[in-house]
Write a structure and sequence with these properties.
8 helices; OB fold (Dihydrolipoamide Acetyltransferase, E2P); Rossmann fold; 2 domains; alpha/beta; five-stranded antiparallel β-sheet
Length: 254
């Protein structure tokens, strides 16, 4: 009889967690999902409490990266990373005897991970997070794109990064706002965009990514928040999330 692995699904996007649960139903004899976590800090708490055999871990999350989660754990489960960031090289993960799933996750690729799990039992006994991060940084492709493609039917509009003021998630949609006041709908999630956009784009709360080059003013706000006044036609005022306070202080040297 094969081993049954207790698993926690960790991803800041509810839709991604639902999809993973749905895909794992096919492997109910091997993996049972005992909990979910929507951010890094919640993940650490649940992992230490429930001590799972396996975690499906998103690399890019608003509060902590997947690597930072692993560094803070005393309990060391098996790790299967998930990410939309294609620059991460699968070979780096394979060399460390762990696994990696690229979003959107394909059924056949998940099956390979489960087969590997069944075959080896333990995936990450010798996981060296610092070395893995170093390899991934070296293998990341340089950012060459200068514009964000926006698809509208058969037409693709290229929005130059220097003309984008901020991006906003509204309900199930994400809009891109340019400095001249135009509003464009994109079919990509805010998390996916945060992983693909160049470094001048910075997430200040769950619903907003701003272009740091288009900040006109910053003000301290109540409840550990910051007010950003953008250098766009509307003089847009955006408020950061409380959980982003420490990261913003570090990012802007406050």
């Amino acid at each position: 009889m094969s081993q049954l692995f207790k698993a926690i699904v960790i991803d800041d996007e509810p839709a991604a967690r639902r999809l993973m649960r749905s895909l794992l139903e096919e492997y109910a004899q091997v993996v049972t999902v005992v909990a979910e976590a929507g951010n890094g800090r919640e993940a650490i708490s649940k992992i230490e409490e429930l001590r799972p055999d396996l975690i499906f871990l998103d690399i890019q999350m608003p509060d902590l990266t997947g690597f930072e989660v692993l560094e803070r754990l005393t309990h060391k489960p098996n790790v299967i990373f998930t990410t939309a960031y294609e620059q991460y090289a699968i070979k780096a993960f394979e060399n460390f005897s762990i696994d990696y799933l690229l979003k959107p996750i394909k059924e056949e690729r998940l099956q390979q991970s489960i087969d590997k799990l069944k075959q080896f039992g333990r995936l990450n006994q010798t996981l060296d997070i610092n070395s893995l991060q170093d390899i991934i940084r070296q293998l990341q492709a340089p950012q060459k794109a200068t514009a964000l493609p926006i698809k509208t039917g058969d037409r693709i509009t290229l929005l130059r990064y220097e003309n984008i003021a901020y991006l906003e998630a509204q309900d199930k949609y994400v809009y891109v706002f340019t400095t001249d006041g135009q509003k464009h709908l994109t079919d990509q999630s805010l998390t996916t965009l945060s992983e693909k956009l160049p470094p001048q784009f910075y997430r200040i709360q769950k619903s907003y990514i701003i272009n740091k080059d288009k900040i006109k003013e910053m003000h301290r706000h109540f409840n550990s928040r910051y007010l950003f006044i953008m250098d766009d036609k509307a003089g847009t005022r955006l408020t950061s999330g409380r959980t982003y306070h420490d990261e913003i202080r570090s990012e802007f040297g406050l």
